[in-house]
Every structure is written in structure tokens, then in C-alpha cells.
Amino acid sequence: MKATSFSATGFLLDFSSLTNRFLSVQDKSDPTKPSPEWIKSLYERGAPTTYRKTKNELQYIGMPVGGIGCGCVYLGGDGRLWLWDIFNKNQTGVVYKDVPWHEKIQNNLSVLRPFDGANYVEPVKDIRPLEQGFSLKIDYEGKSVTKRLLAEDWDEIEFEATYPMATIRYIDATLPVQISLHVYSPFIPLDETNSGLPATIYSFTIANKSQAVVTVSVVGWLENKAAIYTAIDDQYTKSNKAVPNGVFSSVINKNWADDAYSFKADYGNFCLLSLNPSTVVNTAATLAPDVLFGPENAQPSTKRFDEILLGAVRNAVQIPANVTTELNYVLTWYFPNLSFHSIKNETKRYYTNQFKSAAEVGAYIQQNFGKLSGETKTWCQTWYDQSTLPYWFLERTLLNVSTLATTTAHRFSSGRFYAWEGVGSCAGTCTHVWQYAQAMGRLFPALERDTRERVDLGFGFHEDGHIGFRAEYDQQPAIDGQAGRILGIYREHQMSANDEFLKRNWPKTKRAIEYVLKQDRNGNGMVDSQLENTLDAKWPGEIAWLVGLCLTAVKAGECMAEEVNDADFAAVCKAFVEKGKAGMESQLFNGEYFIHLPDPKLGKTVLGSYDTCHIDQVYGQSWAFQVGLGRIIDQQKTLSALRALWKYNFVTDVGPYLTSHHGGRPYALPGEGGMLMNTSPTNETIPYGVKDAWQVTYFHECMSGFEHQVAGHMIAEGMTDEGLAVIKTVHDRYHAAKRNPFNEVECSDHYARAMASYGAFITACGYTYHGPKGEISFAPKWNTGKFTTPFTAAEGWGTYAQQKQGKLYEYRVDVKYGSLQLEQLTVEKNDAKPAKKVTATLGDQSIPIQLKQNAKTLTIKFPTRHKLQVNQPLLVVVHT
């Protein structure tokens, strides 16, 4: 491949050493597109993505393994924790602003903050502000072997990248034992409190494969680094303390007594505890093996703050031949002082409502370990093991929710959720970014409901109906954010058990919709006001992606108005959508794709997308599929637009494009594929109206959140080959050989928009849900003859399965957690043949049903609402 140089925001990169990972997948007849063989492979169930030491794939792995809204702790590929962004530092959005990105990396600063894409090009690694780890000593046949969780100690380490619970296998062919490790923080969809614990759990599984008894000792240690930044004076000391409580043993890091320091951002403590019997606690450990595995040091130690102060816990177990044992450990932290300069009345983290120290967090987990661990494992089994969807697809569409367990996302003691766009980047839970993120609304809907009500319709709401797009931080409206938050209100209503949320918030919701209606200045149903949008400019004219998004929001308004019996407003919304739809399809469709019609007075003299092929041009229709609104934009024109994006914007190698299109942040490098934001099929000299606007650089980038959005839309429209190819291309860009698989970068790390990936999962399942109505629907886009998928609802989650056996179709709903209130189930057959007989059972009881068939679609209604519970499956059998 030809060497390419690329200038991006102040740094120059030489890509001559990069290899093209896509050469094996390119179509020989059209190298810009993937080969049919590669496309076919995307549908294979496969196995969990596993990264290996021997392939040099561990160094960049950083899986967030703390609770949501609790700071960020990374799990490394070797099993050690790193980064430790838990000290509430650098929450101003200007962290190290004047420090060159390469110096940040060289100086090992414990932040991931450059906004220019540098972390994509040269990912950070090995940031370890404190010492932590585990060692194992194996005694067998008169031998004694000590192994640390370090890559150099093992023949092989395999990291199975299945968020929220990673599996790591440590391999040494000379040992008589097999060692594996599960690392996670409790993660239970719908339970945002137990999913928000500042804790990481280590579960070792040790299997004795020999014919003799083997003794294994495990020791874990942790450095006391409380007040890591502020305790810089000789007068301050730290100490460790052992607190035995039956099988509960811990190391508590005790801070100084000066009350003034209790308000510092890094004030707090740690706890390391063993959940195993006969634990030995060492409060003055060193990393010398003979001390780590030696006798208990019963006396607490006191050392200067600037010395390494370790605490350790140790267990020894005798494992009989062919027996497997498990040892569990918990590491917790407590750094309560969280504050932002734009929010004056929020100063504490949410977990302070329940706990007063890291030790209390540890005690809670010890007391509830069976529930917390069991429900987390049940979710992982439901998501990964019990699905027929490809493992890689399940991984990529879920793992971005780990953003909630980074310092992108926070939760105050009041319960309020607050977030950056990415880590430390752009304050205020920005509406025009967060409205792309579909994951939290489905997995933790209570957080989204509260954000709609408390922030969008609260702190950020104005009398004229506009929603400040960064709440207190910036009160001006963003037109795409306004529409997205209206759609979010509809989604949050659907993810509720009843209609109380909608009824309570309808007056303000209606005014927010009316504000959108007013942005159509000429009365043709197409918004044309110059308001902020996610590409950081106020574009004049009628812009397809903004017009379509607003039409979809108003359509949601029509549906909500009908539900609250506001017939007059429902009629206003319906008329607006009909008029705008006609205008969009007649005036903004150029015969192949949708465009930006310039303002008649200004023409193409100011920044805009104009006749370019823009990635979000039919985004409104994409949103419609997320909330079951059906068709907003003509199907054939929409498909034409998506095919144009595939034709003009998607490439298997961005290198040739970047040789002639300069500027932009490097979120895809030469040799990597992606879908470009904007291309100019008409090859205009100045396609964006101006040459020098800095926002033009966005158009040459591959930003994964937008890619996930359009991929999910493609899947919804039946373009599954193309949709899967786009997502798999992102998945490959974040392969651990090159960068952190758990950190999709866009204007800083762990960017919220990437949670649009969950929307692709929604559309792959053809899933829609309306909790207050008790309705759920599935229409999988492939493998319809035998398909199983996880689902979430307002009060529970579980699996949906369908299969065809001869002339029989079976549809089954299993609740794995909570419950599901159901009045109607809608499914699809493989053909339109009429159903001759339909039966339904709930648990072991037959229940009456009413069937309505429309071609392949079967709507099964129950005369009364049923409550599905765990171990009480619903089974519907259709005879044709």
C-alpha cells in the first residue's frame, strides 16, 4: 500500500508501516466493497471474540469494570486493573488542554482526554497510578510454582471480551491445574442501583486435572492511594487496617483526620476483601513473594503518604484430584466528592446514599453476593449463550454501554444522571449527541425517564417549549436534539409499566413538540430555522436529515396525543407530518438520495451539506424503527438513499479517500474501512458551500456512532448484508491488536453516540414494545426458522425464541428476571399461508387467544392481561 501522510488537528502521521487488514475481505471486482465470502461469514454464530498474548493482543485492552456512574477502572488483558479514573479529577472539560497529546502518553497521565483523535492513532496503555494485582502459588509433587497475573508469567493468556463479564484463561502446560478468571462489576439491566456499585469482582476457577492433591494459594494486593493528588504534605499519613468479620476480611485504607480534606475530590478510601473462608489479611504487604505468601502480619502499619503502602488478602486451598474450586474477591472504592462548575447544588456521588465507605460497599456485596453475581451471570447467559445471533454482533452492539461505567457518565446523590459527550469532553448531557444512544433507554430505562423529566423537561426547559441542549451549561436549542428528546420521551413512555410518566409530562412534552412545529417558517411541513445541530453549525435551508427527524418526532407526538386523548393536537401533528413528508420526498430527493436544499436568499454561500450524500439523511426513519412508528419516509426512496450511502460513503479502505480529502480526525486510518460522513458524488469544487470552515473536517471522518445508526437502519430495511458489514467494519477497527476494543473514540474517549450500536440489535430482532399497552413484537431479519434473542421490557427481561418444524411454528417468551405484563404478542411466519389452528400455554396452563393475521404477520391478543414470570414461559404454537 502506498505510504500516506495525514494531517489532523495539529499532528502529522505516517501510515507507511500500516497493513491493510481488509485485503482479505475486499471484492476483487470492486475493492471498495467487501467480498461475498466475507459478507456470508458475518451471519455465522461463531464464538466469543478472544484475544491472546501470543498474538500481541492484550496491551490495549481496557474493559470498564466498575459500576455505572462510579468513575472508571479498566480491566487489562492480563487481568490487572489500570487507569483508575475514580478520583474525580479533571471534570472541567479543559484537562491538559495545552499539553501535547504525545506528552500525555509519555508522562503516563491517568486520563484519556485528547479530543483530536490521538488516542485512536496511538492508544494509551499501562497507566497505573497505583499498584494492584494477584498471584497464585501452586504446590504439587514437591514443587512450588508462583505465577502473577502478568503476561510474562504464562505461556498463553486468553481474554474473552464479553462485556459486562470478561473471562480470562491462564495457560501453562507444565501445571497440573487449569486457571480461569471472571472479572466484572454487578450489571443487572433494570436495576440501576445494584449496577452502580463502585466495585470489581474477581472470581477464580481452579481445576485440578492431576491425580493427586494440589495446594493453591491466592493472594491479592492493593496500594493505598487515597488522596492521590492532594495529600502532598509531610504531615499526612495513611494506614491500612484489618477488619475481620467471619469469612469477611478486608483491607481498609484510612485517610487523614483533617476535616478540610474530606471535601477534596480525591478524598476517600479503598477496600479489598476475600469472600472465602480462612482468609489471612496483611496490612503491610510488599511485593516480595515470601512476604506475600508468608505468615500474617498482625500489626497495622503506618507509612509516609509517598511510600508504597500495600494491603493484601490471602487464601490457601487444597484441591483433590479432578476437583474444581472457586475463590472470590472484591475490590471496592469510595470517592464521594463529585462536582461540576456549571451545577452548584450537586456535590456527591449517588452511591453515598447507601454507603459511607468502601468497606460498607464490600460488606454489602459480601452479604448479597449470590444475588448480585447470579443475576449478572444470568444476564450474560441470556445475552450471549442463549441467543442465535452472531457473537461478534452481540459483543459490538452491547459493549458500548460500558460507557456508563466510565467518567463520561455520572450520577449525583440526588439521583440525577449527568454526562459528557465523551470523557471530559463537552458538558451537559448534550441532547444532540445523547439522542443517538439507544442502549441506556432499553437497559436502564429509569435513568432515561428521570433525565427526560428532571433535565429535558426540567432544568433545560423553557417557556417557549425549547429544551436547552446542554441544560444549565448551554440553554440554547439544538433542532436535532429537540426532536431526539421528544422521541426519547416516547421511548421512555413505552419502556414504562403504565402511562403515568406520559400523563405527568404531557403538558411540557406538547409544548416541546409545538416548538418544533414553529421551526417550519414557510408552512410546508419542513423545518428551516437556523438552529444548532450535532455538526456544530447552524445551517440555513431545508435539510433532509433534520426535516425527517422532526417529522418523526411530530409523528411520535401524534401517537402520544392520541394516548392522552388530545385529539385536536393529534390532528395537528398528523397534518404536519403528511405535509412535510410530501415536501421532503418531492423537494429534497434528487432521484437517488436526499439532500440539503439551500436557503433561497443565501444560496450555497454558507456551510451546509447541499448535494452531498450525508450519512444521516434518513435518520428520522431510523429513529421510527426504534419506537415502532412505522413508515415516515417513502420506502423506495429511503432504500435508494441507503444504497447511495453504501455506494458512495462506505469503503473497505479509507486511505485513497484521505489522500485527496484532507483534514478531519483520524477515526479510521488508511488500511481500515468505514462509512464516511459526507461524500460528493457530483464532484463539486466546493460541495459544502465554503472552503475553510473547521466543521468541514467532520465530513471526512468515520464516526462510529453515526455508522451504527445507519447500519441499524439498513438492517431494519432488509439491507442486512450492508448493515452487518458496516458494524463489523467498526468491530474490526477496534480489534485489540490495534486499540482498546471497549473504547469507541469520537471527540474524546468512550463517546456516548456509539451507544447507537444497541439500536442495530433492536432492528435485527425487529423488536418493538409498549409497556403501558402490554404489547411486544418480534420480526427477526435473518435465521427466522430458528431464532433466539434476548429482550428487555419495563419490569423484566428474558429471551424470545421462534422456530419452524414442518407445518408448525413455535413462538416462546421466557422471563429470566422480573416480570412481563402482556396483552398482545406480534410475530411473523415465513410465508403468508393462513394459520389453521393456534394454541397458547402460560406455564402449564392453556390460555385463550384471539388471532389476527395480515400476510406473514400474526397478532396474538389475550382477552386479559397476563403477567409472565420467571419459570413460567409463554408458548404459542401455530399450525398451517
TrEMBL record:
Q: Which UniProt keywords apply?
A: Glycosidase, Hydrolase
Give the molecular function GO annotations. hydrolase activity, acting on glycosyl bonds
Domain Glycosyl-hydrolase family 116 catalytic region, chain residue ranges per copy? 480-758
**What Enzyme Commission number does this protein have?**
3.2.1.-
- Pfam family membership, one: DUF608
Alphabetized SUPFAM superfamilies for the sequence: Six-hairpin glycosidases
Domain Glycosyl-hydrolase family 116 N-terminal, by residue range, is 62-369
Instruction: From the Swiss-Prot or TrEMBL record, give the protein name.
Output: GH116 family glycosyl-hydrolase
Please report the organism this UniProt entry assigns to the protein. Answer: Spirosoma flavum
